User: What shape does this take?
Amino acid sequence: MRDDLPIDQIIEAECVDAMQALPDACVDLVFADPPYNLQLGGELHRPDNSRVNAVDAEWDQIGNHDDYDLFTCAWLEEAHRLLKPDGGIWVIGTYHNIFRLGTFLQDMGFWIMNDVIWRKSNPMPNFKGTRFTNAHETLIWAAKTKDAKPTFNYAAMKALNDGVQMRSDWTLPICSGGERLKLADGKKAHPTQKPESLLHRVLLATTNPGDLVLDPFFGSGTTGAAAKRLGRHFIGIERDRDYAAIARERIASISPATREVLTVTQSKRAEPRIPFGNLVERGMVKPGDTLYCPRGERTARVRADGTLISGRSTGSIHKVGAEIQKAPSCNGWTFWHVRVRGGFQPLDTLRAQIRETMTV
Amino acid sequence: MRDDLPIDQIIEAECVDAMQALPDACVDLVFADPPYNLQLGGELHRPDNSRVNAVDAEWDQIGNHDDYDLFTCAWLEEAHRLLKPDGGIWVIGTYHNIFRLGTFLQDMGFWIMNDVIWRKSNPMPNFKGTRFTNAHETLIWAAKTKDAKPTFNYAAMKALNDGVQMRSDWTLPICSGGERLKLADGKKAHPTQKPESLLHRVLLATTNPGDLVLDPFFGSGTTGAAAKRLGRHFIGIERDRDYAAIARERIASISPATREVLTVTQSKRAEPRIPFGNLVERGMVKPGDTLYCPRGERTARVRADGTLISGRSTGSIHKVGAEIQKAPSCNGWTFWHVRVRGGFQPLDTLRAQIRETMTV
DNA sequence: TAACCCACTGAATCACAAC
DNA sequence: GGTTGTGATTCAGTGGGTT
Assistant: This one.
């Protein structure tokens, strides 16, 4: 990681100013919880003229030029510049601002991966009875570009959800009780403190240990707290000195998890590749041996170079498997079986034996 | 109600053309399920190699964001004109289009009342393990203007929800089984037929009996079906003759206002499943914490994704529990314990605490 | 009848490394 | 940058048929 960055620090400044001082393509992830009740006026910082013009062009399509859109465009443009090519961004909001955030993300070339619903298990009721209880907030997860491959720890998310795919709706409680930061007078320290559980899931899903996360609206520092706990690094930007001080104190008291427990469930795609030919070379399967389908109704014979032959079809275990099933594709490792005493065993178990010897 | 309107009829025309032929301020509610403008890649296959029947209809291919925005603007402008002063509008979409819909609604002076999440109890999974399961769609409910007082049947919603306020997230199944309209060849009649339970809730919440509902993208006629059942009137606009014919036949076979519908509407209320990972995210158990056997003679450590590690064994609380006991299975909730002052407490009691907060 | 197994399906921006 | 080969990847539910 670059050593000229303010790693694990909180910058006290307007977010666009601070972002402009950082170099291109330096962060792995941006997490942004922007305010939507801005007290806009003369105090709002505007970027330099060239950038305003570039921004203007973007949302002539939208036809609305109010200060909130100008501000949103300015920090999103900077976020785009600061992200590495395969970086990702999360934004969170409510119906007051999330539609504008989503539209701008799309217009700027970000590529939406998911919108995610934070379904609050204990929302504030609607006292007037004039609407539905506002029981959720919306997050958008987007890649820097359409072709980017942002980090997604699919297997870890599946493990976290008891073995079934993590869905786009997350039921989590709001931040309350002991987690909620309080001032000396007992009042809450920040009006919109997010629960660490939310950031835990975001960071575990879309970053790796050691990654750098930028939060341009740092607030009470939940992003930094979760990042430190999970062995990620952060840069926080916060214009309010009191909030920054609270966040610093909060993060200082956190001790990170060890490397061992940060090693999460890995996808099979990450495992080393074993050519089928290795099994032949090692004598686990011999040239001339017969391989069987799961139900044994079709067979193929192994050739010395690790290809199969079955009727007119020859080629890799995958190609032959696909052709005899007339399927678009086939995983030969799980499709083909060898005969063992009294039954069949998939090639995959033989591959696992080789992998076992590799890791030791 | 005006007698020059095509009440309870389906107009076969392009939606903007048909809307322009209607007079100002004549409808109480607009419900719109516009094309989502999906941008799909090639073919998609399930892990069992079957092909996913994608939404590749010509009507969904609007083009780029600019074309989609022009189209959206045109019909939303007409919708605004057709609404009575205290009228309301619902739109539904996914992340592909919902942010643009929301932004335009706001820019045109509509006033958002709620965004509502349709949380699908049985969504299609993500077959390639590349993203979170797309398990919801988003609806926006808006008033014609900031000062409008659109109909909201608060008490009816509360009653429908077992006596507690209706939240902004609705768990309902997708349209399948006998409800799904089929052609003579057994194929689905419309690729995106919405469940009647969804429209039931929308109409019950934001219209009164006798009200007039306009649906400019009528499709298979779910809005008309729900309206007729609930004693509301509708005007449908659909440019596809086949869809219009299907909808006419469907609605003709419906008899209004039976109790039966209410039972259809109730979603199944099951005891919520709590993944062990939730305890980690919520900080009830921390990455690196040690878990103990009932008698404490064996231990495991918790990883950040909610899996355990004990010696060479890693995986879910159930899997690791079974492996270290050399048992075929294990209920990790009762097997593993956390240390509390002076003793041990099973994970099950922590899970019970979460259930407590969710069900109230 | 009940239990069980198998086939099929749903608004989806759905792989990736090596050559 | 395009092409090719390897091989990873699914949940809840309906409905039909068999045991």
In short: Residues 111-113, 146, 149, 269, 273 of chain A lie near DNA strand C (CB under 10 Å from a C1'). Chain A has two domains: 9-269, 275-359. DSSP finds 13 helices and 14 strands in chain A. Chain A has a mean pLDDT of 91.
